[in-house]
Specification:
Blueprint (H helix, E strand, L loop, with lengths): L1 H24 L7 H25 L7 H22 L5 H20 L16 H31 L5 H5 L3 H28 L6 H22 L5 H23 L8
Helix pairs in contact: 1-2, 1-4, 2-3, 3-4, 3-5, 5-7, 5-9, 7-8, 8-9
Length: about 260
């Protein structure tokens, strides 16, 4: 049953993303109910997948590779929805959609070959630190997405004749404020996740711990330098994007340290 939730969620996100791109191409894009329905529909089905999968596994659904991917994409979608509404970043979901869709597709292909598991009680105390870490990752990814929007808006401002997207993107000050607050929240949540892992009965694995610590160090350094005015919003957006691309290549290798015995 859960595979239908995952497939339906991916279809919703693909539909919303494709529909928005078509409207942007013809110059008629306006944030409206159809876009919101697509995101909310995808997010709701993601939540359904995680709930059902959690009960089938008998624990919080973050113990396997494909479940982790779905939970991470759910975290990105959640952060995009919340932040987009608070700061009126109407295009945040559109910029984040490719990441969410990509994670969903990878998760789907990994899920296709898995055997059915038996129904069990939902416990999840051991998985709570990992869930907090993944939520922090989702928030930090949205920081990168907002940073990309910042750089695009900045480029538009420098053009003599800005394009249509200039009028759709939020003010650059809104993006800067959202980035800074999100970065602080992400670092705080990641700190709690790491500390919770130290006291949990089950650790998140050696590779996962190293990866979390690496992400925490990079994020905390950026936040500290920004708060001390050593970095400005433009440079922060560039550094966050560069760090994200670097981590995309480094983190998979770090997680391989856990070995074949890892869940």
């Amino acid at each position: 049953m859960e595979r239908y939730f995952l497939a339906g969620s991916t279809i919703f996100y693909l539909w919303g993303f494709a529909y928005s791109l078509v409207l942007l191409r013809v110059g008629k894009f306006r944030p409206g109910r159809l876009n919101l329905c697509a995101v909310v529909g995808g997010f709701t089905l993601q939540t359904g997948f995680l709930v059902v999968r959690g009960y089938l596994l008998g624990h919080f659904p973050v113990s396997g590779a494909f479940e982790t991917l779905v939970f991470l994409s759910w975290s990105i979608a959640l952060a995009s929805l919340v932040v987009g509404r608070i700061y009126r970043l109407s295009l945040l979901g559109l910029f984040a959609a490719p990441l969410v869709i990509g994670l969903q597709l990878v998760a789907w292909f990994r899920f296709a070959g898995l055997e059915t598991v038996q129904l069990g009680p939902l416990v999840g105390e051991g998985e709570l630190p990992m869930a907090m870490v993944l939520l922090a990752y989702g928030v930090l990814v949205v920081v990168v997405v907002a940073g990309v929007m910042y750089l695009v808006q900045e480029r538009q401002l420098k053009m003599r004749v800005p394009g249509l997207i200039f009028h759709l993107l939020p003010p650059i000050t809104n993006l800067s404020e959202a980035m800074q607050r999100l970065l602080g929240f992400g670092v705080g949540l990641l700190t709690l996740g790491i500390l919770a892992g130290l006291f949990a009965d089950e650790s998140i694995g050696h590779g996962g711990s190293v990866a979390s610590l690496l992400v925490w160090i990079i994020s905390a350094v950026i936040l500290f330098l920004w708060s001390r005015n050593f970095l400005h919003s433009h440079r922060v957006a560039q550094v966050c994007l560069a760090a994200f691309l670097l981590l995309l290549g480094v983190l998979p290798a770090i997680h391989m340290l856990e070995g074949p015995g890892t869940k």
